[in-house]
Amino acid sequence: MARARRLESSIASRRPHLLSVGLFIPTSGAAGIWGASCRACAEIAAEEINHAGGINGREIVLKIVDAGECPQSVAESAEEQFIEGEIDAIVGMHTSDVREALAQSLGGQLPYVYTPLYEGGETTAGVFCIGETPTMQLLPAAAGLSERYNLKRWFLVGNDYVWPHASHRVFKRGITKYGGNVCGERYLPFGTTKFDTLLEQISERKPDAVLVSLVGDDTIHFNRAFGQSDLSGRVVRLSCAIEENVALAIGAQNTDGLFAASGYFGGLKTASNSSFKERYHSRFGSRAPQLNAIGQSLYEGMHFLKALSKQSETKDWRLRDLILEIEGARDSIFSGRGGSCSTMFLAEAVGHEFQVIDTYPAGR
User: Could you tell me whether strands 127-129 and 353-360 are parallel, antiparallel, or unpaired per DSSP bridges?
Assistant: First the structure.
């Protein structure tokens, strides 16, 4: 009862002309490499929305929160900030275990837009996941690679948390349709930097391909080690979480046979992306953080929040049955029941850049 009174009091005292958006992004930990691009993309979106009159006449104010800490700590901090009236909404790019903690703590009490690729299945009221799921991102790419290079045997590597485990379950069910099978599987704690033993295990299993579901710094260390091993060039690597930032850190000498599946690459030659890149670099200059799918998802997430506010005149942020067109660097439509509907791309790393080699239409 005391908590309810505090909550009611905090909502009533909020500033009516400002909308405080908690930008929950990793500025530390394994995913910290994405922090700068996430912040830049969110900032330019907030500026654009404010220039157009804000959200329901309220000016957006971003409050940066480090979502790279342990899930429970992030959730406790978010709940306290909400109760104290410091955040009115959340737009977040972070790992799924953090999302689950936040959803359990604040689900239904404020709009929460979760922007990156994820494992699917989120049903908490008021939580809107606008990123790609394995069935729309991973499986078409794996099928395309399998056909292109006659891949049969797959070894799965991931961090030991919900996204890799859930995504790999989907993968194992789906890859059999294309004549593939899983010959090995390993899950590692965040912060792993030594991979000699794992690489030996992979070599012993003789896979045709490795599915890499490691996050940020961990995938950098793994792919550097892989690129310097005798597996490089003869075993294909596929990831849904490697983008331009991570590819740069891996190093051009270590990307032979590396492929990435994504709904966005910074080098896409589309009208929407060209316009976005021009605005982005005009705002942040030649030394702007590298554009990538992870950062762009925050730009999309901010515009989703604006679109949601127009759709929900009753301010019922728990709506599930809705279809929204989202402004961004790609043409994307969000369905409340089906998640994001966007074209997917399969790209090959050539040095430290990605070249798109296949496209999978939305809804495939």
Answer: unpaired
Give me the residue label for tokens 């994001």: 340
Query: Which region holds residue 120: left if phi is over 0, alpha if psi is between -120 and 50, else beta?
Result: left
Cα angle 169-170-175, degrees, rounded to a multiple of 5: 105
Q: What is the pLDDT of residue 321?
A: 61
| First-to-last C-alpha distance (Å) of the chain | 48
DSSP 259: E
Average pLDDT score over the chain: 89
Q: Characterize 293-321 residue by residue with b for buried, 16 or more Cβ atoms within 10 angstroms of its Cβ, and e for exposed.
A: bbbbbbbbbbbbbbbbbeeeeeeebeeee
**Is the model's pLDDT at 57 over the cut of 80?**
yes
Share of the chain above pLDDT 90, in %: 77
Q: How much is the pTM?
A: 0.92
Give every CB contact of residue 117 below 8 A, 6+ residues apart in sequence: 131, 132, 133, 137, 240, 241, 262, 263, 293
- For 47, the token pair is 């500026």
pLDDT value of position 9: 36
Q: What CA–CA distance (Å, rounded) separates 210 from 140? A: 16
Read off the pLDDT of residues 131-170 as tens digits, 9 standing for 90 and up. 999 998 999 999 999 999 999 999 999 999 999 999 999 9
- Give the helix/strand (H/E) hosting 305: helix 293-311
Contact 53, 12 (CB under 8 A): no
- Choose among 184, 187, 182, 135: nearest CA to 161: 187
Query: 2 pLDDT exceeds 60?
Result: no
Q: How does DSSP assign 35-89, residue by residue? A: HHHHHHHHHHHHHHHHHTT-BTTBEEEEEEEE-SS-HHHHHHHHHHHHHTTS-SE
Interatomic CA distance for residues 343 and 331, integer angstroms:
8
Structure confidence at residue 14 (pLDDT): 59
